[in-house]
Amino acid sequence: HVQLVESGGGSVQVGGSLTLSCLASGDTIGRYCMGWFRQIPDREREGVASFRFDDGSTYYADSVKGRFTISRDNAKNTVYLQMNSLKAEGTALYYCASLLSGRGTWGQGTQVTVS
């Protein structure tokens, strides 16, 4: 099954931008539903952006609409999350996730700190 490794996190000022990458191995992501989630301590993990499984259209949480963009490069087996106009509340551990036939996989996460 697929394994996921996130990268691109770091520290950025409010209003800045970051691009997260999620490199998959072990399988091709073309047939997977892929998405990004984030979690802060003592809070539940929340969905940020994803591709819908049925038609591949994109979903965004209301809190990031207009500022974040999810994209995928199947040839590179990579999913991206472009984050613009970052806010302090965007500080979190960001996870990449995949879903296929009811089986989900998580990456290890990459920390984003906005201050």
What is the compact description of this entry?
By secondary structure, the chain is mainly beta.
Q: Would you kindly provide a written description of the structure presented here, covering whatever features stand out?
A:
With 115 residues, this protein is mainly beta. 0% of the residues lie in helices and 54% in strands. It has no helices and 11 strands. The strands form 2 sheets. Strands 2, 4, 5, 6, 9, 10 and 11 form a 7-stranded mixed sheet that branches. The protein is globular.
Features:
single chain; 115 residues; mainly beta; seven-stranded mixed beta sheet; four-stranded antiparallel beta sheet; 0% helix; globular
